[in-house]
């Protein structure tokens, strides 16, 4: 069966998917990997990709491309999102990726990022949702909201420049968080999300990307990571409130030791938890389904076709 690969280069992490297309036209994963490289470190303030962030990301990107080729991938699609969009020197990263990894990286718009994330969620959740789907994709540099109908059509999408890395760098400096820092960040999020239109009646909220999956693994003490236990799980709003309080109250060293939390994500997870919490409040959502998939699966269908 033919194999294809996608690599999602985000502000905080790089994700690899190698999948094969079945005779029925579905994609089945052969390999999935993720590494935190923090490409977007400092971009919110400097508007430039740092040499350290680029080097760490290029090393992982090169290794992932080699793995995909070794597994027989006929094509490799690579996307880059918020950090690369915002950086004045993004072209330097694209040129280096071509030279070192032999791949062409496409910097995708926030609108396309939202559409691909929704496509992934629709493939996995439309059959069980009673009505419309709402998707929240919390990244390191941006957060996308998408409302769509059961047929898979997107009715609303918007990308906000709020992400776990960006807001940590902008608002959170004390260890553990100072009460005033949390209050300032919460006020900023409430003001930002106040522009969201009311969700369609009967909507199901689905969260994708590392913040949401990490909150679920911490809540359920899942270690090592188990995609089958994460995919399709549910976080209630009361659970997210408890997680936000706990994560914001712990020093960084103690967060790093929590079961289910990658140590490299420990510094930005409080901001990520607050983004999800304030989004759920703005949307009046009592719960959030959890998707382990996201943009890389949407990109797979977008670039290589699926039934």
UniProtKB/TrEMBL annotation:
Q: What does the record give under GO molecular function?
A: pyrophosphatase activity
Q: Where does the record place the Ppx/GppA phosphatase N-terminal domain?
A: 23-301
Determine the domain of life of the protein's source: Bacteria
Q: Which InterPro entries match?
A: ATPase_NBD, GppA/Ppx_hydrolase, Ppx_GppA_N
Query: What protein name applies here?
Result: Exopolyphosphatase / guanosine-5'-triphosphate,3'-diphosphate pyrophosphatase
